[in-house]
Design goal:
The protein has helices at 6-26, 43-59, 74-86, 105-111, 123-130, 139-150, 170-178, 197-202, 253-256, 270-286; strands at residues 2-3, 33-39, 62-68, 92-95, 159-163, 186-190, 206-209, 227-230, 234-237, 245-248, 262-263. The chain is an alpha/beta fold. Strand 9 (234-237) and strand 10 (245-248) form a beta hairpin. The chain is globular. The protein starts with a strand and ends in a 7-residue tail after the last helix. It binds NADP nicotinamide-adenine-dinucleotide phosphate (NAP).
Length: 293
């Protein structure tokens, strides 16, 4: 059984990005610049954004954090988005989700210039991804594809079961695993209304679990030799930890891992790759890789 080490892979990729940035700037190009808008004081979101700023530093990027109060109106937020759209120094930016309930997330996502949408959530990027055109691909599925590639997990012609159909993970993941240029797998998507989820999993060569239910995938659901990608990161209360919680994946790692060919741990698997792919998208934005001109 091989552990797919997302933390080590992400460190390697960040070093590769930093080397490229140093070479770009030595040749006169400006440093890639990622901006982030955070609305409110949600603990999880603060941590994510802080980690994104740290990743920018590790990659040699410039970063800007715009931190707004909870009571920011939708109109004010849209004005910030517009300013970043217009700012020639900003290559890419993100609006950290979730947003307070009085703001329409979809409206905000659609207000972002798709050429700066390094989260890959704008319908133009989602649509281009779906038909296999160059675009910003959302960071979590992109990171999983990168792990599968770097660990040389065979995917072509394999049966892949994706658990979950959210816009940020399950849906794009299934698209990528299906596409000839990426996974080239035979893909089944299961969700909360799937009648035969267990049987689908039992036949899968690859299971990608993204439902947010700790320990949901148990040993009796896994075919011996399967590869398991665990996207789940649920905070489970744990008084023995300094933060008062521990992160739990969607897979019962202890009992499933001995059966597998390869598996991602939680933490240290998919999570570190997500921020790293945001950095890769920002570098691509700075280089106008997907949208020249
Ligand atoms: P989400 O928007 O809540 O979607 C969850 C999906 O799982 C839905 O499609 C839902 O089905 C399905 N589901 C829920 N309970 C189920 C059950 N008992 N059986 C079958 N399907 C079930 O969640 P998300 O944003 O995709 O995130 C999923 C997990 O990944 C969370 O733990 C999240 O924290 C984690 N995550 C991690 C990263 C990372 O970087 N590591 C990034 C993003 C998300 P319905 O559609 O029928 O409701």
């Amino acid at each position: 059984m091989q552990i797919i080490d997302g933390k080590a892979t992400a460190a390697t990729i960040k070093a590769e990005i930093k080397a490229e940035v140093e070479s770009m700037t030595a040749n006169g190009a400006k440093r890639p610049h990622l901006a982030a808008i955070l609305v409110g004081h949600d603990g999880g979101s603060l941590t994510y954004v802080k980690n994104k700023v740290l990743a920018c530093e590790a990659c040699g990027f410039k970063s800007t954090l715009i931190h707004l109060e909870d009571n920011t109106t939708e109109e004010e937020l849209l004005q910030h988005v517009d300013r970043l759209n217009q700012d020639p120094d900003v290559d890419g930016f993100i609006v950290q989700l979730p947003l307070p309930s009085h703001i329409s997330e979809q409206k905000v996502i659609e207000a972002i210039d798709y050429r700066k949408d390094v989260d890959g959530f704008h319908p133009v990027n989602v649509g281009r991804m779906a038909i296999g055109l160059p675009c910003f691909i959302s960071a979590t599925p992109k990171g999983i594809m990168e792990l599968l590639r770097r660990y040389e997990v065979p995917t072509s012609g394999k049966k892949c079961v994706v658990l979950g159909r959210s816009n940020i993970v399950g849906r794009p993941m299934a698209q990528l695993m299906m596409q000839k240029e990426y996974g080239d797998s035979t893909v089944t998507v299961c969700h909360s209304h799937s009648a035969n989820l267990r049987e689908e999993c039992q036949q899968a060569d690859i299971i990608i679990a993204a439902i947010g239910r700790p320990g949901f995938v148990t040993a009796d659901m896994v075919k011996p030799g399967a590869t398991i990608i665990d996207v789940g990161t649920t905070r489970v209360p744990d008084v023995s930890r300094k933060q008062g919680f521990r992160l739990c994946g969607d897979v019962d790692f202890e009992h499933v891992s001995p059966l597998c060919t390869a598996i991602t741990p939680v933490p240290g698997g998919v999570g570190p790759m997500t921020i790293c792919m945001l950095m890769q998208n920002t570098l691509a934005a700075a280089k106008h890789t997907y949208y020249p001109g």
